[in-house]
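Consortium newsletter contribution from the modelling node. Members have asked for a concrete example of what our holo predictions look like. Here is one, prepared for the D-gluconic acid complex that several groups have been discussing at recent meetings.
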Amino acid sequence: MSFPKDFLWGAATAAYQIEGAYDEDGRGPSIWDKYSAYHGNTRYNETGHVADDHYHRVDEDIAIMKEIGLKAYRFSISWSRVIPEGVGKVNETGLKFYSDLVDKLIAAGIEPIATLYHWDYPYALHRKGAWLNDESSEWFLEYTKVVVDALSDRVRYWATINEPQCVLGCGYWGGFHAPFQQAQPCDLLIMGKNVLLSHGKAANYIRNHAKKTPIIGFTPIGPSYIPKDDSAEAIEEARRKTFSTEGEGFTFSLSYWSDPVFLGKYPDELYKDYGDMVPEFTDDEWKLVTEPLDYYGTNIYYSQGGPKGVEGYPENRYQGAPESHIGWIVAPEVMYWSAKFLYERYGKPIMITENGMAEHDWICLDGKVHDTYRIDYTHRYLKEFRRAAEDGVPLAGYLHWSFMDNYEWAEGYTQRFGLVYVDYKTLKRTIKDSGYWYRDVIASNGEKL
Ligand code: GCO
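And here is the predicted structure:
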């Protein structure tokens, strides 16, 4: 079996990671602008102030996307570029940047996939308490309305909130992403409710007001376990762990975010761990949170580790196990198991909204970037995704992370994930071997795999 005829082959980026132009044309600051340059919060205190300068090089970038043959491009919108204070006055120049981007993508034959929020929270709203403030979902709705009213005559594909796990888990629990805080469970649970409500209000608005019939998804990350062997017990154990709320680590879990959206309830385990601390939702709130979606968007990179084995390695590792430059285990089967487990539980077509690997690529003597490992990694993961389809999982698309090298948050510029190499001294772009390989995969609709 091959990939569906209308399969969306694409690549993804996020505003703060590529745009730069952080203080131009009326853009307001985000939490990343304010916090990334200090205290070693990020590697070498690097920021996204210039990043790939995509804001000024958008035409060149779209020409490269066209050369690679991308059918879809997932980008995110910088909230504070569109509404500098987070609420209130709209920055028309900022909004126009995205409207033009959409026009240019469509002119190039590329389907735009717009993510409303990919971690660059407006600093002005951060000062009002951000997600801890119960008005935060109304702020998010206000922003959503501006974007949807402006773009939905052309954009069909929408993603609301990227990796809510990281929004809270990295930003407010682990404290290694902006705003680099470590909040307590009682606060995290309230913030989590407000993130879910923000998602729900946005999805509901898009559904009822988009000018073009929308295709809406939520994009959590998919921490997934691979069964130890083929036995029914091992598969069940992997499934159980995949959907565990993970005690104190609940903000990183899958079910904490996805069960409310797709099943209309929090997992029972959360009540066992936190009892009365778990916030209640009114019926109207549940209605919003469970606004029916069209696809389950998931970002998949590696498998979860599980407990340590006898040799001291977690279950998914062993001495010399393959890992990428960022230290993530290379585990292609996770693509199959994740897609399968997610479809079984939530019943939606699966769109891989991110998948890829970081390496320390460089330009070789012949002027090219020979990233054979990225080709091999992607090839293996895509074969596993196809295996899920053979087992009856409907596939909606595959978006490689990333279209081009970019600012990898707390890792600064040390991790290169792109199909396109970016020289940060000159900002020159060079398509890597993987970009050309992906072009052929797309052209053959995956037959090449
Ligand atoms: C994420 C984010 C991306 C990252 C990518 C590599 O999934 O963490 O969506 O912004 O850059 O995943 O870490």
